[in-house]
Structure to design on (1032 residues):
């Protein structure tokens, strides 16, 4: 037996205006799950504690709660001392019980025809992952789009895709999905990461439905324009100032000190055409830290804006051109500084003859020269495609903490992804404004991020400066140089 | 406390597992149907947890006759032959319903539903969806239900059946706030599932508390063979709180082997022909014996090993097992599982005829709460088929029942009201009572039984039943009702076990020497009701 002290959110609709926390200390067995802690509280401390559970083996989806802010199944998650247990972020009925029935019953059923045979094995294999949903609604509880847009939510999209794939279903699910807000998803990947069954809804349902919708002519005009632009120029955005490529003279940049490594640099459309200075900052930081940087000029858009919006026609061509650009130079490691490009190269390319690393990963791995500290407090906005898309979260924090003091805020989508900023500006703005509030709460003087879409979008929703991690590092180096020159002007 | 509105319907279905939803879908063709469920629809109960599969004769080389024989032999010939005939004959049709409604079962290269071998069967006839077969069925049934006009009353538990004269005419429900609901119906289908939560070590979900047996018994229905409790051979043993959690038979169906701590494949000593795929009663006793003989692990189990199978087979055919064990720190691709028997299924239950009619007019039963289909030992995969075959039959019979004028007898409601009021003034924590009951049942009415231990266990149950359960608030009233149901169900199990003075199937009386094989047993069903109890002589007909 062991003793655990936990905090549990309590809410009695008759008495409480809003939820309150109670602390309980209970005895549980070794290996106890969160559910066993709830049982112990209920059986020994306070029998009025309300929570749901049924199968206690991860199969019915009744017991999803948040532990330390993260959705989990109470029956599967190991209990830890000091944990905080809250209901999912859905309408709370009492204590840990949320109202999930309306959403579950609104999922569309299959409309059978006369066909009474199983589909072929490959269809079954495509269906199976979408079928393992236990309707716990953890995904819905973390989806930023459902909060601000007319969107039926991630598991509804999963269900529509499951129906669309099934030859036994007689309905047009693509049109239905579009009506339910298919294009309002920001591709933030939060649903998938929260799903206890690891159902990859954004990639396996939403993008697939968007591809079907594109074929049916449902693509948004702004998304079609982007595809046209890529077809014409190889880039997804227009140039507003001299591009990165127009501003560099060489294709290879030698490091300022002994070379530790050589990397290919994948720039991405935003950093090339809209924020070239940030990309130049990155080159500086890499050179200063002993990295030789090779920049093939033939590189084009990674294809992410097309994949996220279901326009797959040009994809193979883009992938081929990018792979060739680096492969022909014999490059073993390609570094990205745009979270979206990085996630796309890592996950959406069939296979690459090189390793792809985000610039935060690379710098953290090789270790960096210490920058000068700046007397500032910064908060860090996790780009969805870096945090959830690539699992990179500690690295940028370690880097930027060398320059400024970090104050955290919750990692939530800013609203710029998935084609939402162009397709549904109101939704993107609503999410941007939510970020504003979170940023204000931190009291930071500066917002650091690591994605051009986030950088661009958050700038519209905060009065604070918004910078990429590398630009901050460079500032630290400049300050260091300045101080050195002051003390030793001759050097 | 009673809410003023009363629901009226043609058919009331109690329970939203596989049997209940199937019954409701069927009944809705005949008139207004209400589905009341203790849990959110489809989330509670054991169907959604069922992993291994659904037995149906689909292959030319298989036959209903062989399925029938396997079932009877597996059930130690205690099964009601009429019900078994229906089961094997209609299981394929009900499977076809599920396929038409969109179920995603695994398939063969020629788009047929794939089948795997299961214990005690001479043909691989167990259809499956990986190791989440029951969940797949529930998803399909819920989708189908959504296409009907069935009205759902979720998270409302039935605490008593209502009767008019000698017939059942509705039920009293209790919602989460402790408010009573009155539901009047021309006919009632009981589909509340099983009850092995009365044991300390059990595979069942939170609703496996035997409510239906208790409700039926109190209303006057007759139950049969309640001593027949299936102990599934392979339940988890670690960590402590996960004890009893099912390790599906599909693990052995896919080729998993059992070993004791000496590394011996001990099934060769108990059933050299069928080995790990012998019937559950045999494998359970073998494991229990090995453990008793000191050849078990420190955690009190034996090894179940699939490490010789390709990792890809484990990943695609046993994903839930893989995930569950990984969560507890065991990678079954690389290390063996530790398992021991766990209380799994109640073969006995409310007596039904082929139309699912119980001994009480107006009351039908289907699924695990009904008895007779599985005799003294259920074959893996037959229960899921049972839910569909008899779910449909119950829904149809209830639907076809005549409409009638129902007058709710207020006296029955006040009786329940009084019972609830007593709980509010009670003094004993229901959680403690159920804990004591579970341990007593495991110790005194488990895999091996003696008259003496059963008598002792019944005394414990009677003592517990005499305590005054305490509800801390109106919202805790249901817990008291549930514990009361557990006590009633446990007493039915123990009383029947005392009545059956032979070893038969899952029921083993260590204190009785017998010289007959099950086939020639002089005994038939045990039966119990508030009016009578006893055991039928030979054949049970
Ligand atoms: C872990 C596990 C795995 C299994 N695997 C298999 C397998 O692979 N193959 C196989 O054939 N069989 C299997 N079985 C057995 C099989 O799943 C069950 O026998 C069968 O599903 C029972 O179905 P049911 O509809 O009768 O009841 P359940 O599915 O148990 O549903 C009972 C319903 O009744 C409701 N209920 C209970 N009490 C009340 C009340 N008082 N008021 C209102 N509602 C109430 C519950 O909420 C629930 O909705 C397994 C069982 C378990 C526990
Ligand atoms: S990817 Fe993000 S926005 Fe899209 S459905 Fe999932 S959680 Fe919602
Ligand atoms: S998709 Fe995953 S998170 Fe969402 S309801 Fe289903 S199981 Fe839960």
């Amino acid at each position: 037996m062991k003793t655990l002290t936990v905090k549990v959110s309590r809410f009695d609709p008759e008495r409480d205006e809003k939820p309150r926390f109670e602390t309980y200390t209970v005895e549980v067995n070794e290996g106890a799950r969160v559910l066993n802690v709830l049982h112990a509280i209920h059986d020994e401390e306070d029998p009025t504690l309300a929570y749901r559970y049924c199968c206690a083996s991860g199969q019915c989806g009744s017991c999803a709660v948040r532990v330390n802010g993260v959705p989990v199944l109470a029956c599967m998650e190991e209990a830890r001392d000091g944990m905080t247990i809250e209901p999912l972020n859905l309408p709370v009925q009492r204590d840990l019980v949320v109202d999930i029935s309306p959403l579950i019953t609104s999922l569309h059923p299959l409309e059978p025809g006369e066909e009474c045979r199983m589909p072929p094995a490959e269809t079954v294999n495509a269906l199976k992952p979408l079928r393992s949903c236990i309707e716990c609604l953890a995904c819905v509880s973390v989806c930023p789009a459902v909060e601000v847009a007319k969107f039926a939510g991630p598991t509804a999209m999963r269900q529509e895709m499951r129906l669309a794939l099934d030859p036994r279903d007689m309905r047009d699910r693509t049109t239905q999905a579009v009506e339910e807000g298919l294009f309002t998803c920001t591709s933030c990947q939060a649903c998938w990461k929260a799903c206890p069954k690891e159902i990859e809804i954004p990639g396996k349902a939403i993008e697939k439905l968007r591809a079907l919708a594109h074929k049916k002519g449902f693509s948004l005009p702004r998304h079609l324009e982007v595809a046209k632009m890529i077809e014409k120029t190889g880039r997804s955005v227009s140039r507003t100032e001299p591009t990165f490529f127009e501003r560099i003279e060489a294709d290879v940049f030698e490091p300022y000190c002994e070379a530790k490594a050589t990397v290919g640099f994948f720039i991405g459309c935003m950093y090339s055409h809209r924020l070239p200075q940030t990309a130049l900052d990155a080159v500086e930081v890499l050179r200063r830290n002993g990295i030789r940087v090779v920049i093939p000029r033939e590189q084009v858009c990674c294809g992410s804006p097309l994949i996220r919006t279901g326009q797959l026609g040009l994809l193979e061509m883009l992938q081929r051109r990018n792979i060739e650009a680096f492969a022909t130079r014999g490059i073993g490691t390609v570094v990205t500084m745009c979270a979206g490009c990085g996630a796309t190269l890592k996950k959406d390319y069939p296979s690459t003859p090189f390793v792809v690393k985000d610039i935060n990963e690379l710098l953290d791995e090789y270790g960096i020269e210490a920058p000068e500290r700046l007397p500032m407090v910064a908060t860090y906005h996790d780009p969805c495609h870096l945090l959830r898309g690539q699992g990179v979260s500690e690295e940028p924090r370690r880097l930027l903490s060398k320059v400024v003091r970090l104050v955290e805020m919750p990692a939530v989508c800013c609203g710029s992804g998935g084609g939402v900023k162009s397709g549904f500006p109101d939704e993107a703005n609503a999410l941007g404004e939510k970020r504003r509030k979170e940023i204000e709460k931190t009291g930071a003087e500066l917002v650091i991020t690591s994605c051009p879409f986030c950088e661009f979008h958050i700038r519209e929703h905060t009065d604070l400066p918004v910078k990429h991690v590398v630009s901050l590092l460079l500032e630290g180096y400049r300050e260091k140089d300045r101080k050195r020159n002051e003390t030793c002007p001759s050097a | 406390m009673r809410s003023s509105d009363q629901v009226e319907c043609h058919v009331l279905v109690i329970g939203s597992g596989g049997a209940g939803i199937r019954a409701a879908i069927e009944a809705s063709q005949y008139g207004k149907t209400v589905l009341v469920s203790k849990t959110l629809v489809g989330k509670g109960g054991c169907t959604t947890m069922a992993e291994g599969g659904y037995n149906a004769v689909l292959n030319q080389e298989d036959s209903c006759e062989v399925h029938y024989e396997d079932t009877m032999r597996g059930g130690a010939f205690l099964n009601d032959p009429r019900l078994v005939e229906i089961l094997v004959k209609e299981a394929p049709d009900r499977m076809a319903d599920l396929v038409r409604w969109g179920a995603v079962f695994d398939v063969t290269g020629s788009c047929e539903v794939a089948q795997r071998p299961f214990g005690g069967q001479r043909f691989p006839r167990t259809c499956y969806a990986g190791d989440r077969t029951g969940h797949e069925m529930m998803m399909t049934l819920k989708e189908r239900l959504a296409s009907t006009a069935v009205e759902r009353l979720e998270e409302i538990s039935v605490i008593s059946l209502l009767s008019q004269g000698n017939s059942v005419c509705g039920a009293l429900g209790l919602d989460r706030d402790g408010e009573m609901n009155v539901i009047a119906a021309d006919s009632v289908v009981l589909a509340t599932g099983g009850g092995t939560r009365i044991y300390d070590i059990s595979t069942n979900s939170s609703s496996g508390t035997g409510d239906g047996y208790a409700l039926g018994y109190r209303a006057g229905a007759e139950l049969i063979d309640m001593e027949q409790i299936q102990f599934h051979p392979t339940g988890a043993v670690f960590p402590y709180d996960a004890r009893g959690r099912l390790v599906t038979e599909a693990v052995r169906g896919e080729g998993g082997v059992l070993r004791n701590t000496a590394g011996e494949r001990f099934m060769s000593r108990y059933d050299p022909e069928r080995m790990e795929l012998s019937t559950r009663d045999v494998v359970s006793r073998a494991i229990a014996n090995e453990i008793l003989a000191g050849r078990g692990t420190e955690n009190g189990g034996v090894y179940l090993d699939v490490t010789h199978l390709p990792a890809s087979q484990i990943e695609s055919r046993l994903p839930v097992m893989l995930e569950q064990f990984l969560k507890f720190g065991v990678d079954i691709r690389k290390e063996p599982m530790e398992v021991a028997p766990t209380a799994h299924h109640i073969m006995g239950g409310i007596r039904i005829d082929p139309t699912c009619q119980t001994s009480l007019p107006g009351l039908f039963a289907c699924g695990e709460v009904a008895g007779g289909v599985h005799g003294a030992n259920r074959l893996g995969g037959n229960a899921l088929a049972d839910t569909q075959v008899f779910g449909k039959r119950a829904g149809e019979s209830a639907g076809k029942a005549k409409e009638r004028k129902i007058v709710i007898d207020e006296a029955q409601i006040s009786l329940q009201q009084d019972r609830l009021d007593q709980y509010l003034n009670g003094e004993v924590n229901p959680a403690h009572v159920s804990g004591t009951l579970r341990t007593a049942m495991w110790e005194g009415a488990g895999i091996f039984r003696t008259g003496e231990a059963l008598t002792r266990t019944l005394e414990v149950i009677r003592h517990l039943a005499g305590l005054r359960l305490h509800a801390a608030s109106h919202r805790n009233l249901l817990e008291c009702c549930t514990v009361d149901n557990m006590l009633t169900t446990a007493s039915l199990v123990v009383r029947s076990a005392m009545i059956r003075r032979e070893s038969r199937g899952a029921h083993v009386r260590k204190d009785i020497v017998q010289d007959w094989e099950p086939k020639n047993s002089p005994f038939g069903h045990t039966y119990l009701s508030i009016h009578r109890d006893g055991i039928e002589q030979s054949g049970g007909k």
Q: What stands out?
A: Residues A 142-145, 154, 185-191, 201-202 surround iron/sulfur cluster (ligand 2) (CB under 6 Å). Chain B touches chain A through 61 residues (CB under 8 Å). The first helix of chain B runs from residue 18 to 27.
